[in-house]
Amino acid sequence: MNYRHAFHAGNQADVVKHVVLVALVEALRGKAKPFFALDLHAGIGRYALAAEAARTGEYIDGIGRIDSATDAPPVVARYLDLVRGFNPSGRLEIYPGSPRLIRALMRPEDRLALVELHPEDHARLQAEFRGDSQVAIHHRDAWEALRGLLPPQPRRGLLLIDPPFEVQGEQLRMAQAIGAAHRRWPEGIIAAWYPIKDRPPVDAMLAALPPLPRAWTAELTLFDSLFPARLNGSGLILANLPWGVEEPLREALAWLQPRLARQGGSWRLDPLPS
Ligand SMILES: C[S@@+](CC[C@H](N)C(=O)[O-])C[C@H]1O[C@@H](n2cnc3c(N)ncnc32)[C@H](O)[C@@H]1O
């Protein structure tokens, strides 16, 4: 396992993923019933941008481009408020990962399970949430945990799948995992992140998906031409998209795209076959 998210925290892909995540968790909070969230590839939860992230500087072209915006649409504004909550000095020093963003939106009756396989990152994640009785942390393989932890109690909730795509064939494994998760937890919201380097692996992954209810792909690219050697953009497969989230997501992607763009690019929110 070579991938360490600390080098990439707050980059363009994190911004897109985390804005979508905030929209989904906000929708879950819209009803009084408790929810359960499972973050299968959790990372360490909180990133000091002066540490590893400063070595790549990726966050400068991600959260760094929008953190002081005052004209963001509601979903992005909510996400920016959460990020600012971790930076009370007003300077962008800390970037919250998916576990911290979900946790910030939880009510006392909601629960979060975090899975992380990397031994060091797992230890840091454990330290981050020590003493938090609403958060369970698992040191195990995500694909095996998916079978062990689903279906959850309560049954309302969200699954985030966010692998590093460092091994070949991860796209097809993702499609299979989404199918397995949906069979075990048909009512669960699924958000599964993927990189856009080249089009064929993405199209093969989307073609390998089983029919899913209220399913969409949200994508945002930063360049007009795709060069397979670079991260041209990213996307999320969404299933059981809560009612009322589609329009705010369109607004968010339309606002984000020109602000994150490097040389053109585009965004889309398209339905998948159900
Ligand atoms: C893209 S990062 C996660 C970022 C995090 N979800 C966020 O948005 O803040 C992927 C994480 O998955 C972990 N990982 C890689 N393979 C895994 C596996 N098979 N099971 C569980 N975790 C894994 C990596 O160590 C890394 O921390």
Automatic annotation (TrEMBL):
Catalytic residues (UniProt): 162 (proton acceptor)
Gene label: rlmJ
Protein name: Ribosomal RNA large subunit methyltransferase J
Annotated catalysed reactions: adenosine(2030) in 23S rRNA + S-adenosyl-L-methionine = N(6)-methyladenosine(2030) in 23S rRNA + S-adenosyl-L-homocysteine + H(+)
Record text on subunit structure and interactions: Monomer.
InterPro entries (alphabetical): RlmJ (IPR007473), SAM-dependent_MTases_sf (IPR029063)
Lineage: Bacteria, Pseudomonadati, Pseudomonadota, Alphaproteobacteria, Rhodospirillales
Function, as annotated: Specifically methylates the adenine in position 2030 of 23S rRNA.
Record carries keyword S-adenosyl-L-methionine: yes
EC number per UniProt: 2.1.1.266
Record-annotated site: Interaction with substrate rRNA: 3
Binding site for S-adenosyl-L-methionine: 18, 41, 98, 116, 141-142, 162
PANTHER family to which the protein is assigned, alphabetical: RIBOSOMAL RNA LARGE SUBUNIT METHYLTRANSFERASE J (PTHR37426:SF1)
Family that this chain belongs to: Belongs to the RlmJ family.
Keyword line: Methyltransferase, Plasmid, RNA-binding, rRNA processing, S-adenosyl-L-methionine, Transferase
